């Protein structure tokens, strides 16, 4: 640790920066929590957000604008994972992963019994895709902006069981999207299974209204929630959907390989558990003839089973604490301010075709666009040489550029990216 960094940590650890407290940590540790003390922090308060940025190990050699793919974890998460790995290897203790479940439940405002621990979004999607009792000819509504993780499981079910996939082409407003979904529903429709927020252009769908519409029509409502937690003030009880699959390695900045599936308690008997193991059951007996399976646990725990990586779920708990200390309302305001500024400035350029909706409720931290005068992959090469890490979107033939801004980014970095776009104009 260099002298400047050591001096900074000594000055702020357990002390105050303005009116913000920082939790005390050992001087040799890079991990420190900044606590907003429940205050509203302005999106433009660069002193506060610089301290947040310094809690991430990201290099300053390039500008990371791809949180929508992988969210870097702060020091405190990394140290929690390392510490628990050491503890397991020294003590030989078993378990510890379940400690994350109550924190996750609180984070999205549901009961702990409704949370199944998974390793990623795709795992949760497959649990739902194969667990719903669908038959040949039943219709499922997806979009034409799907990630492979939501498209392929449903397409695979269609291949094996003959279900019919219908696709929503997203509109620019929440109201129009709701109308388009309604128009796609027929007597054969059984499931709405769309992203909460698209991976392609970051479009936020009106999840609560879609859930209400689906239930009025007698449908199951499921969201691919890869981009929901950590980007929004996610309240699954308020949204009212039946199932919600997500990961914790994007906007939650948690360890890679952590995720969860929400299953509304009323849906436990509807969603069949196709894969089970230790922890899924209420009992079994191989000593009788015939062997006996006594049934499933009466919670969503039935969908996760066996040994999990306890260390990364301990790290997930640390990431949730980290977000709470900053304040989710502050995070949402900062993220939307950065992306809103980027969108506004890009739309001033003649060579840009904006894809992300401008309606406030339909956009989050992600900005998607095309360049009218340059192929997207060529711009990707240009941006890479300039030190930017972005995402090129080939999915669904969009051939576009995606920029994700999060709490470790700042307006200066956004301005530098805008200049890079101007250079090819």
- What is the CATH top level name of the largest domain? Alpha Beta
Average pLDDT, to the nearest integer?
92
Structural class: alpha/beta
Note the gap between the termini: 43 Å
**What is the CATH topology descriptor of the largest domain?**
Aspartate Aminotransferase, domain 2
Major sheet:
7 strands, mixed
User: Compute the gyration radius: what is it?
Assistant: 23 Å
Anisotropy-based shape: globular
Q: What's the quaternary structure here? A: single chain
What would you say the CATH architecture of the largest domain is?
3-Layer(aba) Sandwich
**Which parts are unreliable, with pLDDT below 50 for 5 consecutive residues or more?**
1-24
Task: Identify the strand order in the major beta sheet.
Answer: 5-11-10-9-8-6-7
Total helices: the number is 13
Helix residue percentage: 25-40%
- CATH H-level name of the largest domain... which superfamily? Type I PLP-dependent aspartate aminotransferase-like (Major domain)
Number of strands: 18
**Beta-strand proportion:** 15-25%
| Number of structurally distinct domains | 2
């Amino acid at each position: 640790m260099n002298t400047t960094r050591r001096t900074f940590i000594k000055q702020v650890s357990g002390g105050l920066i303005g009116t913000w407290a920082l939790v005390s940590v050992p001087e040799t540790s890079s991990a420190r929590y900044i606590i907003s003390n429940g205050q509203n922090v302005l999106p433009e308060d660069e002193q506060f957000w610089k301290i947040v940025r310094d809690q991430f190990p990201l290099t300053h050699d390039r500008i990371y604008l791809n949180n929508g793919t992988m969210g870097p974890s702060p020091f405190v998460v990394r140290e929690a994972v390392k510490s628990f790995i050491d503890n397991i290897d020294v003590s030989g203790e078993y378990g510890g992963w379940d400690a994350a479940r109550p924190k996750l439940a609180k984070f999205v405002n549901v009961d702990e019994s409704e949370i199944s621990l998974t390793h990623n979004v795709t795992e949760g999607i497959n649990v739902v895709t194969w667990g719903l009792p669908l038959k040949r000819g039943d219709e499922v509504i997806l979009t034409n902006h799907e990630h492979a993780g939501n498209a392929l499981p449903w397409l695979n079910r269609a291949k094996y069981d003959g279900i019919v996939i219908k696709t929503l082409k997203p509109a620019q407003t929440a109201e129009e999207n709701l109308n388009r979904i309604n128009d796609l529903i027929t007597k054969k429709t059984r499931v709405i299974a769309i992203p909460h927020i698209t991976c392609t252009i970051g479009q936020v769908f009106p999840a609560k209204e879609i859930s209400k519409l689906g239930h009025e029509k007698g449908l199951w409502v499921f969201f691919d929630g890869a981009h929901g937690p950590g980007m929004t003030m996610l309240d699954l009880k308020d949204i009212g959907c039946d199932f919600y699959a997500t990961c914790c390695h994007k906007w939650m900045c948690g360890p890679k390989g952590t995720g969860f599936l929400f299953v509304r308690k009323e849906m436990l008997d509807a969603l069949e558990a196709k894969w089970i193991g230790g922890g899924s059951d209420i009992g079994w007996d191989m000593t009788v003839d015939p062997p006996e399976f006594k049934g499933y646990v009466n919670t969503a725990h039935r969908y996760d089973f066996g040994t999990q990586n306890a260390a990364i779920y301990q790290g997930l708990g640390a990431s949730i604490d980290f977000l709470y200390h900053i304040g989710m309302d502050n995070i949402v305001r900062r993220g939307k301010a950065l992306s809103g500024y980027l969108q506004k400035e890009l739309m001033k350029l003649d060579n840009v075709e904006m894809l992300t909706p401008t309606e406030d409720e339909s956009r989050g931290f992600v900005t998607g666009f095309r360049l009218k005068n340059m192929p997207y992959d060529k711009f990707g090469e240009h941006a890479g040489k300039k030190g930017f890490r972005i995402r090129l979107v080939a999915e669904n033939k969009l051939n576009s550029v995606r920029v994700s801004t999060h709490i470790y980014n700042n307006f200066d970095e956004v301005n530098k990216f805008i200049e890079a776009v101007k250079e090819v104009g």
